[in-house]
Amino acid sequence: MNVLVIGATGKSGRPVVDALVARGAKVRAAARTPGAAAPGVEPVRFDWADRDTWLPALEGAEGLYVVGPFGQPEPELLMHQLLDQAGDVRRVVLLSVLGADRLPSLVPMASWEHDVRMSGREWTVLRPNWFQQNFGEGFAEGLRTRGVLGLPAGDAAVSFVDTRDVGEVAAIALTSDGHGGQVYDLTGPSALTHGEALRLLGQASGRTLRYEALEPADFADAMRRGGGGERAVEWQLALFRHVRGGGNAAVTSAVHDVTGHPARSFPAYVAGA
Ligand SMILES: NC(=O)c1ccc[n+]([C@@H]2O[C@H](COP(=O)([O-])OP(=O)(O)OC[C@H]3O[C@@H](n4cnc5c(N)ncnc54)[C@H](OP(=O)(O)O)[C@@H]3O)[C@@H](O)[C@H]2O)c1
Question: Ranges for the NAD(P)-binding domain (predicted)?
Answer without folding.
Answer: 7-135
